[in-house]
Design brief:
The protein has 388 residues and is an alpha+beta fold. It has two domains: 161 residues, v583 fold, CATH 3.90.1700; 210 residues, Enterococcus faecalis V583 domain (Enterococcus faecalis V583 fold, Alpha-Beta Complex), CATH 3.90.1710. 36% of the residues lie in helices and 19% in strands. It has 13 helices and 15 strands. The protein has a four-stranded antiparallel β-sheet. A four-stranded antiparallel β-sheet has the order 9-8-7-11. A three-stranded antiparallel β-sheet has the order 10-15-14.
């Protein structure tokens, strides 16, 4: 399929970027986020009663963390009454994994385009394998872990950022050694840990923080999500372009945005990813596709780089059909990036997304990991709107 000139221009804009993590900002400072507003993954919910249980749980945790509710029950009542609002994170230049939400006082990784300077994207700190908000559990253990992440641990990270850490070179290092920059990030995560330790004057002396850093390769994932969104965001606003600039799910609906129609979500109902459970629970406990990390795969990495299938498998075929061109930094890896609604509609298949599977009841957390075959419908909607 010949690349449409508008899609080529959007791709070129996305590729002229150098995402760098250079500091932390709170959501209140960076976004002027109101105390009673929380940001979640994927498109918006039509009403509070449609909020999926894992995101509702995380929203209750965030409300207690912020001190705007005395307990989880009061937090839920405030959400249902519209006193606490939930909005899509990507509409506010934020990306968040799975069921994690962002609140006003949370310190966020700030990733900016070092070549252009003007574009900034934000992401919360990944909770690792401890009681993490992204798993959608309603517990005091999650609140306690968030407090530790956003105080003691953030101080350790801040001490190692120095002048900033370029993220594309870490991604390339990971991809060369078996990472896919979504479901698998141990190599890039270890490289990030080395950078932080080397840049910290006197090294990192907080043993708990050091242990968490070594054992949390997914710390890199949130940063890479922000880097990916930073590149995608630079492609927005090209008239006539179907280049994908947002992708994500909220457990109920999944959707995309495209360059030529910035800020407009095109959605469909989210079915669960297909994969094996790590717990003895029935398959109907699986929540629909959730998380802003879907944008990594829509950008050509994750499952689209062959990370969860063989090089001869379906993800490789999808990548060949949907991905646009090679980024200069990725050219030696034979990996193409970007995707367009035009290519999806033409091929009749959407991107494959590697996603964690969450418990739709909000009690068991992560059930496993699987592949989500993104439907063509949102891409068809986008093309219809673009052509109108």
């Amino acid at each position: 399929m010949t690349l449409h000139p508008a899609d080529q221009l959007a791709f070129d804009k996305a590729m002229v970027a150098q995402p760098v993590w250079n500091r932390f900002n709170t959501a209140a400072d960076a976004l002027n986020l109101a105390e009673n507003m929380l940001l979640h993954a994927g498109p918006s919910f039509a009403s509070p009663d449609l909020i999926t249980l894992p995101i509702l749980n995380s929203a209750c945790v965030a409300a207690v963390y912020e001190g705007i509710a005395r307990d989880f029950d009061q937090a839920e009542a405030m959400i249902m009454a519209g006193e606490i609002l939930l909005k899509p994170a990507q509409d506010h230049d934020v990306v968040t994994p799975l069921a994690a939400v962002v609140s006003a006082s949370m310190p966020l990784h700030t990733v900016y385009d070092a070549w252009g300077g003007g574009q900034r994207i934000f992401a919360p700190i990944n909770g690792g394998s401890r009681p993490a908000m992204r798993l959608g559990l309603r517990s005091t253990a999650v609140v306690d872990h968030i407090r530790w992440l956003n105080t003691r641990f953030v101080d350790v990270l801040q001490g190692g950022i120095a002048e900033g850490i370029a993220l594309v070179p870490l991604a390339v290092e990971g991809l060369r050694s078996g990472d896919d920059c979504h479901g698998r990030t141990p190599v890039a995560g270890a490289a990030l840990a080395r950078e932080l330790i080397d840049r910290t004057p006197g090294g990192i002396t907080d043993e708990d923080a050091l242990e968490f850093l070594y054992n949390s390769p997914s710390l890199f994932l949130n940063l890479w999500m922000a880097a990916t969104k930073c590149m995608m965001k630079l492609a927005e606003g090209v008239e006539g372009s179907s280049f994908v600039t947002a992708a994500g799910g909220n457990g109920r609906d999944t959707g995309i945005q495209i360059s030529g129609l910035p800020g407009q979500w095109f959605t469909t109902r989210a079915t669960p990813p297909v994969g094996k459970f790590d717990l003895e629970l029935p398959l109907n406990r699986a929540l629909g596709a959730i998380g802003d990390s879907a944008l990594v795969d829509a950008f050509g990495l994750g499952a689209m780089s062959g990370g969860l299938t063989s090089s001869e498998g379906p993800s490789a075929l999808r990548s060949a059909a949907l991905s646009v061109r090679a980024h200069p930094y990725f050219r030696a890896l034979d990996i193409k990036l970007g995707s367009t609604a035009r290519a999806v509609v033409s091929s009749g298949a959407g991107p494959m997304i590697s996603l964690g599977i969450l418990d739709r009841m909000g009690t068991a957390g992560r059930l496993g990991v699987g592949l989500y075959d993104m439907p063509v419908d949102p891409f068809s909607q986008a093309m219809q709107a673009l052509e109108q």
